[in-house]
Structure formats: C-alpha cells, structure tokens
Design a protein that fits this description.
With 132 residues, the protein is mainly α. It has one domain (24-45, 57-129): Four Helix Bundle (Hemerythrin (Met), subunit A) (Up-down Bundle), CATH 1.20.120.910. The chain is built from 6 helices and no strands. Helix 3 packs antiparallel against helix 4. The longest helix is centred in the middle third of the chain and has 37 residues, at 58-94. The protein is elongated.
Length: 132
C-alpha cells in the first residue's frame, strides 16, 4: 500500500493568507489610492501617432495604426477605471462605501477585496452589465 502524500496547502490557501496580511486589502482607501496613482501614471504616457506612410511601408503603417488604436482603447479603459476609483473614494468619504449603489445591500467583502472600486453587488452588476 502506498503512503499518503503529505498535505500541501493549495494555492488558494496561500492567497487567503496573503489577503489577510496584505495591508492594502485591510485599508480600501490605501488600495484605491495606489491604483489611482498607477492609472494616472499610465494615462500620462503619450500615445505615439503613426509615422507618415512611405511607398512600400503599408505593413509598417498598419502595425503603427493598430498599436495606436490599442493604446487609445487602453487609455479609455484606464480613464473609466479612474472614474470608478474616484467615485469609490467619494463613497468612502460619505459613508456609503461597501453598499451597492443600485439596491443598497452590502457588497460582498471578497468582491471589494478583488475590486475595491466596485459600486454594485454581484447580482446588480449582472443586471447592469446586461443593460438593465
């Protein structure tokens, strides 16, 4: 009969220990401010316009246009996330942080650990995502 393998903590167990000891997860304002600063730094980086196209460089120009469009889309996403973070900071200040802005119920703490800027409980987020 084979000996049982020694018990090894799962990766999720390690993540749980990290979550409990991570000071940013214990202080939502600190986590929001760290993410806000990161986003502001990313947004401040300039987007390079494509070079003027010369004969035979259509492939290079297409790559440059693609890169510019990708960078613009990422900047737009970062601006949306920055607005969500600013709104979460306002909710912290007015005492409504952690409550769903749609239904008023508490947002699951694990959701707030993962997304400190979350404005909706998971049920309302599903509705909002579907356009409701």
């Amino acid at each position: 009969m084979a000996a049982a393998a020694p018990h090894r903590p799962s990766r999720s167990a390690g993540a749980t220990i990290h979550r409990v000891t991570d000071p940013l997860l214990q202080d939502p304002r600190a986590a929001l401010l760290v993410e806000r600063n990161r986003l502001k730094a990313e947004i401040s980086v300039g987007i390079v316009a494509p070079d003027a196209m010369t004969y035979g460089s259509q492939a290079a120009a297409a790559s440059q246009v693609f890169a510019q469009q990708r960078d613009l889309a990422l900047r737009h996403r970062n601006e949306q996330q920055l607005a969500a973070i600013d709104a979460a900071l306002v909710r912290l200040d007015d005492g409504t942080y952690g409550r769903c802005v749609r239904c008023g119920r508490p947002i699951d703490p694990e959701r707030l650990d993962a997304l400190p800027w979350a404005a909706h409980c998971i049920e309302c987020q599903r509705i909002v995502t579907r356009g409701g």
